[in-house]
Amino acid sequence: MLVCEQIQLGYDRLLVDGFSYTFKRQNLYGIVGKNGSGKSTLLQALAGLLPVKSGHIYLDNQRLTRPVAQSYISFLPAQKQYFGYQTLAFFLSLFSKDKDKQNNLLGVFDLQEHANKPFYILSDGQKQLAYIIGVLLQEKPFVFFDEPLVFLDITNKNKLMDVLNEQIKTQKCCVVLSLHDQYILERYIPHQIDMKELL
To answer: What number of other Cβ atoms are within 10 A of residue 179's Cβ?
Structure first.
């Protein structure tokens, strides 16, 4: 599990003050709040990418450091690197060489016919799904997504949530995502953290 103990986060102003929480494996968590409320900042801290101003974060009883995070956590940021002329298949091979797993996830999201196409010709929604598949292929015990539903239509939003719930069951992982979609929140997210309550 990942444990926050009285953490503070912020830049010129505090975004999180005295946040204590335990994120457990085999659970799905949603972080909600208006733009600029600190959702991305909190996710980056949970992923070991941003130091806390005070307090501590522990992962399976270890202090959360970059090396620990790299071993246990996969994270999809809102701002992503662009892969241009590389094919979708090459992009996914950066995360896993297991073709069966790649093809399975490509099939779930109806992307198999695009596997050998260059990344730049994919639609925004298809690119977003490709990034999501890349994260899922890593099969880390803690999986964090910053606004993964952006650019996705309702069909793929539902598919993604079904895939996440399946991975939570089969891989016993913990999934945390930030989002605004009220329909997805009400239908899929049992544990919700509202940023306005963290100050």
So the answer is: 22
Structural contact between residues 160 and 152, judged by C-beta atoms closer than 8 angstroms = yes
Q: Is 4 helix (H, G, I), strand (E, B) or coil?
A: strand
Mean pLDDT value across residues 56-79 = 95
Please report which confidence band the pLDDT of residue 126 belongs to, taking 50, 70 and 90 as the band edges: very high
Check residue 153 and give its pLDDT.
97
Q: Do residues 137 and 96 make contact, with C-beta atoms less than 8 angstroms apart? A: yes
Q: Which domains does the chain have, with CATH numbers?
A: 2-191 (3.40.50.300)
Phi and psi, residue 65, nearest 5°:
-125, 170
Residues counted in the chain: 199
Per DSSP, the residues of 73-106 read: EEEE-SS----TTSBHHHHHHTT---HHHHHHHH
Cβ(142)–Cβ(74) below 8 Å: yes
Residue 142, both tokens: 């803690």
Tokens of 135: 């994260």
The C-alpha atoms of residue 182 and residue 186 are separated, in whole angstroms, by 6
Prediction pTM value = 0.95
What is d(CA 27, CA 175) in angstroms, rounded to the nearest whole number?
7
Evaluate whether 91 touches 111 at the Cβ level (below 8 Å).
no
Rg (CA), the chain: 17
Strand order across the 73-76 sheet:
73-76, 142-146, 174-178, 27-32, 191-194
